[in-house]
Amino acid sequence: MINRIHQVQVHRVLRLAPGMIRIEFVGDLEGFVTTGVGDEYVRLFLPGEGQTQPTLPIATDDGYWKFPEGSAPSPVRCYTVRAWDPASGVLTIDFVVHEGGVAAAWALTAGPGDIAAANTPRGLYEEPEGIRWRLLIADATGLPAAARLAENPPPGVRTRVVLEVGSAEDCQQLDLPADTEWRWVYGGNGHAPSRLEQVVRSSDLPDGPGYIWVAGEARSTRAVRRYLRHELKLPSGTYKIVGYWTEAAEAWQRKYEELPESTRSALAAMWDDATRDEDEIEDEYEAALERLGL
Asked: Where do the domains of the chain lie?
């Protein structure tokens, strides 16, 4: 498994919408290995409080990292690779910005020369062979991935895209293929109830084999997964549901940490059984979170 840590610096900052900033990075990106998968993401290492650059971690063979002994770990957040241009060596990442949050605060003040670091990306999107259509649905956090996926459609595959943003001001100009169907809906994103589940339920799925990809707030995507798996009974592998963020994350984390250690250990241990079907484990895990009010 290739795993490298690349120190990067801000090259250019663009305001795409009131709630989104695009940052182009350059720097130590020789040997940056893209997966080519449209929703690939990097771990972005950012300066901690009082720092001008992050403490660079050491990549490990298992795909993770460790910080040098005795050093203060840098804040780490996952972000989608909006674009990678190997010719110019520019790595582009779009940031949802809001009050609070380490990464949002950093992006709001970032300027040319500011230093961060990124690891080797990993992709999650995995459409089956032979599909005729795909449905891409995301809130603002999943917008960069959905847009990149939509910009590069498989030949002969019909693509529909629905993007949920806070308001009309948050819409962006997207350069999508002429035959791509796409629309904006307003809601969610920490400002109103999410419409992701409603959008999926109201979608008229075409005949023939297809693929559904949904990314957004964790509880909203959890409901989407239940609908696709347990109501529509779609086969495993015909959809990918990704929780990109958790609303009121700090309160969620406090509640989680207040659980008995035995409960937290049991939740983590669910994923250790390699003999079990992953979808069955996820069913059990999500049901446990619901019972615990998480």
From this structure: 5-119, 133-247
